[in-house]
Amino acid sequence: MDLAEQDKLSSAQIGRLNGIAPSTVRVYQMRARRTLKSPPTRPPAPKAASSPTPRRTATDFTGMDVSAAALNQLPQRQRQVVRMHLAGAQPAEIAIELSMAKATVRVHLHRAMKTLQTNTTPAPPGRRRSRRTPSLCGRHAQRGETKR
User: Fold this and answer.
1) pTM above 0.85, yes or no
2) Is 63 strand, coil or helix?
3) Confidence class for position 118, pLDDT limits 50, 70, 90
4) Whose CB has fewer CB within 10 Å in the chain, the N or C terminal residue?
């Protein structure tokens, strides 16, 4: 039975002929109709008239303290990646040399940059308190204990 004849039959009749459930026939028919439709065409997006502003990338270490003391605060693998990057190696070259994926190299550079940024940013004046202050539950408060 060809497709033209099957279009005239109901999904239950086609299912009985082929030995499958009518719901399965409907799924196959829906998929067939979907693939026969042409994809929608979109108009091209308008181009921006202004020039793009330069973005700071995850590998831009300008203005950061990259001294030996600052790099020693990083984990060993991040330190290796940053030193190779500062020597002029590309992420693909670093990945091959250290046997890791390029994405891992980019992650190490990004995390190292964030660590070096937070270490070079001056702390705000005054004493920093932790978010959680120890509280005394009822039992300890009754004994007259104080907070540490």
Assistant:
1) no
2) coil
3) confident
4) C
